[in-house]
Amino acid sequence: MSDLGSEELEEEGENDLGEYDGERNEAGERHGHGRARLPNGDTYEGSYQHGKRHGQGIYKFKSGARYIGEYVKNKKHGRGTFIYPDGSRYEGEWADDRRHGYGVYYYVNNDTYTGEWFAHQRHGQGTYFYAETGSKYVGTWVNGQQEGMAELIHLNHRYQGKFLNKNPVGPGKYVFDIGCEQHGEYRLTDVERGEEEEEEEVTLMTVVPKWKATSITELALWTPTLPEEQPPADGTIQEEAPGPEGGGEPAEDDQALADLSEGEADLTRPGEGDEDATKEEGREDGREELRYGAIDQGNVNFEEEESKQGEQPA
């Protein structure tokens, strides 16, 4: 949400004093602990230094918002909690009146972001939890957007790869809890944004990433120094951490794994079908590619697409 701007600064001029009850220094400046009511109806109670809010204090807006935390020369700086009029709130570090450093934002829809901030925006390493779906994005952010290497974790599978402008791009993989990985790549494809107006000569286009599967393997034990090693023979297989793809060999006797066709990322378990998954590329447009959709809502709906295709789980 858009955040409220900085509070109206208090002035020591005769016409902008408002009401003040508290300590002053020898120069008559507000200094020490005091309570003030500003001309715009906002109130502040806390520490002052040489006429400015400085130290711990509570600022209440007439809109219902309030800030409880540290000030430096009239600006939010240090640790503090800002509660917004809609009920959302931020708890964490501030610098020069902006969210800056490490903090947690609790959104009105019960989503949360926990991680680093820079100049009022999500920036650096952080985790965004989607309350509606139970999914979460764990990775890097740049200027408020999901960007860089990350892992998008759902209830029964996860995607590991690179993100750009909230969308997955390039090579990556889906890791399924049933014990397999689907490797592939997200490719950018132009699609129509909406109906073309009669007077427009050029149709508005938007770029949407689509998934192209290339191979299916067992869960791989990632060993960066020994990529040629195979997974343990005793069947104890660890999930791979986000990063480079593992070197696991394809399962020899996994029943019907080949039916996870190229681009068919909407399955939560292996299906039945041809041995070679890549031969399925030209069957149906609906099965050829997976549109990524709104990644910000965590809606990679595997079961719905599976039912539409009429496939039975193995």
Short description:
This protein is mainly beta and 314 residues long. The chain has helices at 285-288, 302-309; strands at 19-24, 30-37, 43-49, 52-60, 66-72, 75-83, 89-95, 98-106, 112-118, 121-129, 136-142, 145-153, 157-164, 167-176, 180-192, 205-218, 290-291.
How do the strands and helices of this protein lay out in sequence?
Blueprint: E1 19-24, E2 30-37, E3 43-49, E4 52-60, E5 66-72, E6 75-83, E7 89-95, E8 98-106, E9 112-118, E10 121-129, E11 136-142, E12 145-153, E13 157-164, E14 167-176, E15 180-192, E16 205-218, H1 285-288, E17 290-291, H2 302-309
Strand segment tally? 17
* Residue windows where pLDDT falls under 50 for at least 5 positions: 1-15, 192-203, 235-314
- Number of helix segments? 2
Biggest beta sheet attributes: 17 strands, antiparallel
Helix content: under 10%
Mean pLDDT: 73
Q: How big is the Rg?
A: 27 Å
Strand content: 35-45%
Q: How would you portray this structure in words?
A:
This protein is mainly beta and 314 residues long. It has helices at 285-288, 302-309, and strands at residues 19-24, 30-37, 43-49, 52-60, 66-72, 75-83, 89-95, 98-106, 112-118, 121-129, 136-142, 145-153, 157-164, 167-176, 180-192, 205-218, 290-291. The chain is built from 2 helices and 17 strands. The model is unreliable at 1-15, 192-203 and 235-314 (pLDDT under 50).
